[in-house]
Specification:
Structural class: alpha/beta
Low-confidence stretches: 1-5
Shape: elongated
Mean pLDDT: 91
CATH topology of the largest domain: Alpha/beta knot
Number of helices: 8
Number of strands: 13
Largest sheet: 8 strands, parallel
Number of domains: 2
CATH class of the largest domain: Alpha Beta
Length: 259
């Protein structure tokens, strides 16, 4: 029988399986967070999730040697599917990229795909750092999964790797795209899978737009009359998707597995 408890105020993502009585030892970073930052102690409880077993209430059992051992005591949310739209994006400057990863995770993105374009300002992408940011955002926003972060790829390879059944919405800053609201209004009722591709600060090169626009599963879309920063464009598109066709239309309790 599933518990009907509210979610824990403090949540952590772990990779270990979660089951009643199966103790697990946190890594140094997570132990420091619980014991030094949040100042928890044995007997206190936190929420744990791993993207597979739902969310569990776990009790701190041991803090020897500065580490932290927890024991799951009850499941407070069943695992649910959190597919979400994909986002392919050109890496941005540090602060803008931080905002993009955090907010895209909050907006339910299922996969993050860095793509290197002609005008991308930096080709070095720290996947470990982006994954850590996505985990932290998932912990804070109540998700039961963490979006996948891919290794960077050249924009030209995106069309080769993209599954044909998942429509690709190309954020076109030139004004030549169809309004996103119109595209989403006419979206097939039974088609839930989609993704977006957003260019760098300087926009896509003309030949990049043309190449992507010729893909049979791609649609060039516009986001209104104003020129948006890259991170604003990506997050606006994700918000529109969730409002029109995504999980903002679902019952919140069903979406999180909590009743």
């Amino acid at each position: 029988m599933e518990a009907k408890a509210a979610r824990a105020d403090i949540r952590l993502y772990v990779v270990a399986p979660l089951a009643v009585g199966e103790a697990l030892r946190l890594d140094e970073r997570q132990s420091h967070y619980l014991l030094r930052v949040m100042r928890l102690a044995p007997g206190d409880t936190v929420g744990l999730f791993n993207g597979r077993d739902g969310e569990w209430l776990a009790r701190i059992e041991d803090t020897a040697r500065g580490g932290c051992t927890l024991t799951p005591i009850e499941r407070i949310a069943a695992q649910v599917t959190e597919g979400g739209p994909w986002l392919a994006f050109a890496p941005l400057k540090k602060d803008a990229l931080d905002v993009l990863i955090e907010k895209a995770t909050e907006l339910g993105v299922g996969r993050l795909i860095p793509v290197l374009t002609q005008r991308t300002q930096g080709s070095r992408v720290n996947i470990g750092r982006l994954s850590a940011q996505a985990i932290e955002a998932a912990e804070q926003c109540g998700r039961l999964t963490v979006p996948t972060v891919d290794e960077p790829m050249a924009l030209a390879r995106l069309g080769e790797k993209w599954p044909a059944e998942r429509r690709l919405l190309l954020l076109d800053e030139t004004g030549e795209g169809r309004p996103l609201a119109d595209v989403l209004r006419d979206w097939p009722v039974d088609a839930r899978d989609a993704g977006f591709v957003c260019g760098p600060e300087g926009g896509f090169a003309p030949e990049e737009l043309d190449g992507l626009g010729k893909l049979p599963f791609a649609v060039r879309v516009g986001l209104g009359p104003r020129i948006l920063r890259a991170e604003t464009a990506a997050l606006s598109a994700l918000a529109c998707w969730q409002a029109w066709r995504g999980d903002w239309r679902d019952d919140p309790a069903a979406r999180t597995g909590r009743r």
